[in-house]
C-alpha cells in the first residue's frame, strides 16, 4: 500500500533554494565608491618582474667577463714567457760545433755528456715526439740534433715513474723532440739541442719547458742582422722522421747499422 503523499501545500513555495541561500534579490554591499574591490591576484600579476630574463642576462655578462679576463691573462703569460735569447735561461751551457760535421759508423768519444754536436751517424734517430725506453745510440741522437731536435735525457735511477711521465707529456707527439733514459748521466735530467744543453734536478723545473719551446726547430729566432741565425741548428728543414729507427732503435754501444733514411753520401755522389 502506498504511503500517503504530503499535501501539495506542504512544499515550500517559490521554488527550491540552495543551502545557505537567502533572498536572491538582496543588494550586494558596496564601498564608498559603490564599486567592488578588484581581486588581489590581478594586482600581483601586474607588478611581477621577469626574474628569469634578468638572471639570464646577468649570467651572460658574467660569462663574457670571465672569457675576457682569461684571454687577457693568457696573453700576458705568453708575453712574459717570451725569450729573446737562450742565454736568458739560467744554467744553459753552450758549445761551438760548426755545421758540416762528418758522418761516421764508428763510436765517437764525445766531449760533452750527453753530446750536443760533433761527428755522428748517417742515420738519425726518429725525433717526431718519440719517447724511447732505451738508451739510444748517441751517434744517431746527435744527427737528430743537427736536424733541429731537442733531446731530453734522464737518469732512470733518479726519477720516479711520475717524473718520467711528466717529461713524456712534454715530448709525446711533439715533432722535433725525443726522450730517452741515459746511463751514467750524472744528473737527474739533461736537455740537449745542437750546441746547447741544460741540466736540472726536477721534472717540475720550469726551465725544461722553456728550453724545449725555445730550441725545438729553433722556433724563437735570436741574434741581430747577419748574426741572426749564427747559433741555429745546421740543417733547417731536414726531416725528423725515421719510423724504422723508432720501431727498432739502436741502443748505445751497438755497432752502427743502416736503418731508415740517411744523409750518408753514396758512391755516385763521391
Automatic annotation (TrEMBL):
It comes from the Bacteria. Keywords: Membrane, Transmembrane, Transmembrane helix. This is DUF3105 domain-containing protein. The keyword Iron does not apply. Residues 1-39, 251-270 are annotated as: Disordered. The chain crosses the membrane at residues 51-73. Residues 1-11 have a biased composition (Basic and acidic residues). It comes from Blastococcus aggregatus. It holds the Pfam family DUF3105.
